[in-house]
Amino acid sequence: MEFVSELWTIIQYFILGLVQGVTEPIPISSSGHLIIFRELFGIEASGLSFEIFVNFASLLAVFIIYWNDIIRLIKNGIIYLIKQDPEAKSDFQFIIYLIVATIPVGIIGLLFGDAIGEALSGTNVVGVTLLITAAAVWMIRNLRGRKNDRDLTLKDALIVGLTQAVAVTPGISRSGSTIVASMLVGMRQETALRFSFLLYIPVSLGTTIIEVPKLVSSPEFQSMLIPNIIAFITAFIATYFALKWFMNIMAKGNLKYFSYYCVVVGLLVIFFL
What we know:
This protein is mainly α. The chain has twelve helices and no strands. One of its GO terms (molecular function) is undecaprenyl-diphosphatase activity.
């Protein structure tokens, strides 16, 4: 009987890792889906520690996919600082825009992140915020912007950063909110996607550095070491393939289906959970 219980726990955490990995890159809210599945499984949440842990797995997958962009930005950023090379200026500016866009969510996350996560982590709230995500994604379903990396402005970065701060609320998709804002200010799909996920890196890295060491040293984590590791590995693999898939979706402009999905899930959650 104990073996069956342990096996079921492992299956639950595998599913949670899969849910995190699949939903993190696409505009349907990973935090909202984790709340839904934890409710279905009857797993009590203790703050945001588990979410941050599996989010770190997603971060590693994003690092791998955008590794060449990251290295290029760092290299050209340093070159511009040292030599003022005009060829490196656009990448240096792109870094500045990422920093500017990170500030709003950094402030709100540090001051109110835990309070917002705990106060608004009910399934009814998630149902409503999924409907909000659906409406936002629907707005940009047919947009085709023209702005490339070189065309971005500080105003664009600030607008995208403010929308990312809104995504601290469970059920509001981080990738969805930043992609929506990026396309509303006129970015091309490819530029919007790259800006969104490069913006994801400093935010996720900051919370990881702060929270993960505390989590892995806690007795609760140690007692659930194997299920947590399984969730982590699953989230990493699922994020990698989900993001690759979403890149193709963005290129084809089929975002309306994510809007449909969020409407259906949001209504199901409101009426049945």
